[in-house]
Amino acid sequence: MHSKNHKKETTPKKGTFSKATQRVAEFYSELYKKHGYSLETLTAPKGGQDARFKAKFEIGNLHNTKILDVGCGFGNMLDYLQAWNINTQYTGIDICSELLETAKKRHPGADFRLLNILEEDVQERWDWVFLVGALNDQPKSEDWWDYVQEMIKRMFDLCTKGVAVDFLSSYVDYQKENAFHASPEKVFAFAKSLTKRVALRHDYMAYEFTVYLYKNQSLTNNNIFFEFKKTLPPEPNI
Q: What percent of the chain has pLDDT over 90?
């Protein structure tokens, strides 16, 4: 059951975030030209991929579900799903064609698409929608936080179970140039405007956090979300 307060699904007016999207695509295209197939192209931390994907996959039961990987890059999420024997129907999308071409070569036959969910009226739905690291590098843009909010909102529209998205944290001693270090409190407040059921994890990397947004907000009479409603067996007669 979905919350009655959930807003009607909408796609932003075409062209609203075209410039921001173009800057992101160009940013990763330039990195690919410089570094090729490398974590440096994705600005991903060395040794941090295990923790990033583990944090996403712990959102719920992924087995035999449909997953959308937004900003899939080289398709590394599919590597982890396969290595950890998580059986899913995977779709990876990106707005940088160079990254997608490499992903297709690495995983022939997998479902990779050049797709901008903010510009296209996508009718398909997935159980879980994930975004890993794709919002951490901020091209020079005054409307970046607006772009981030629309991305989260659109991903939540496209899921039937939940969304997991990560950010570099504002709780750091140093911020690199052009990086987007989000306030966990600000992201949490926005997530709560979309769904009552939200979890924030700042426990897997020192400078990064992940937010879960759940679609099912059904409550028991005493305000417990149904998935957490557990009962003890009857006590034996004493």
A: 64
Provide the Cα torsion 10, 15, 19, 20; round to 10°: 0
Residue type, 155: M
Distances (CA, A) of 160 to 25, 156, 163, 182, 215: 28, 8, 9, 26, 6
Say which CATH topology domain 18-228 has: Rossmann fold (3.40.50)
**The residue to which tokens 């719920």 are assigned:** 60
Beta bridge partner(s), residue 169:
182
Residue 122 identity (one-letter amino acid) = V
Whole-number Å distance between alpha carbons of 195 and 50: 28
Task: Give the residue from 200, 205, 180 showing the smallest Cα distance to 189.
Answer: 200
CB 99 within 8 Å of CB 73: yes
Q: What 8-state DSSP symbol labels residue 26? A: H
Q: How far apart are CA 70 and CA 152, in angstroms?
A: 10
Q: Which amino acid is at 222?
A: N
- Give the whole-angstrom CA distance, residue 215 versus residue 238: 43
Query: For residue 4, what pLDDT is reported?
Result: 41
What predicted TM-score, i.e. pTM, was given to this entire model? 0.87
The DSSP code for 225 is: B
pLDDT score at 71: 94
Residue ranges of domains in the chain: 18-228
What's residue 22's pLDDT? 80
State the number of CA atoms in the 13 A half-sphere of 172 facing the CB.
19
